[in-house]
UniProtKB/TrEMBL annotation:
Residues 34-88 form the HTH cro/C1-type domain. It holds the Pfam family MLTR_LBD. This is Helix-turn-helix transcriptional regulator. It comes from the Bacteria. Transmembrane segments: none annotated. The lineage of its organism: Bacteria, Bacillati, Actinomycetota, Actinomycetes, Kitasatosporales.
Amino acid sequence: MIPGTVDVTNELAVFLRTRRERLDPRDFGLPARRQARRTPGLRREEVAELAGVSTDYIVRLEQARGLRPSAEVVEALARALRLTPDERALLFGLARQRPRSADKLATVAEPLLAQLVADLSPLPAMLMNHRYDILAWNSEMAKLLPNFDTLPPQQRNAMWLCLMHPETRDFYIDRERVVREGIAHLRTAWAAHPEDQALTDLITQCITHDQEFARLWAERDVKVNGRGRKMMRHPDAGVIAVHFETLTPLQDPDQLLVIYRAADDESQSALDRLYTR
């Protein structure tokens, strides 16, 4: 059968019912007298109790009666039904809600992604989290962005470097566009992670200490550009133009893989000289 247009309300109902029916009551320590069942899985009232909602609410959800559960209820249902991360993501999508991910905020590089960054040599590459903290980089990126790898971890942040670090403040020839695009990303990340105090502190610091950031932040631009061109004025190699690509791994959506490529022959020659220094 070829599926037609998705009815998300009905799909949500079927998904909840099938996930409830696949559960083994014994895994929940239910009393033996409650285990004589005519249907597989948990009863609706048991799921309701585990999720902290009424049985009638579960019935209405499974009967596709037009309910749209809140993000908090969706999270409670995901825990009650013991959903996998992928199933949890689908449940949030069907409920047209966005999950909170405070427990998964990336502060260190996922090891396989860090290895991928190294394997991308000789292309300059780095791994960042949603707040632009630089988590991993290869030797080419360390040579392209002057001395950032010698800074303490709390200062290895792409936005902080651009705004606050003396060696990189004038590094980008098209500085305002770079800052504007960075702010658009930070605002989007800030809206998605309102619980991330470190991100809020970074934005507050930038607003307080940099008038350009404060002015652009007030414009509330939210267009995120994951692909483009940057012009750099390197202290040793001169002007370098690069194309950049920002990729988001499916398994780690809060980590961003950034890859640079020379935009022209002159820039490639400058990079080659830089890498052999």
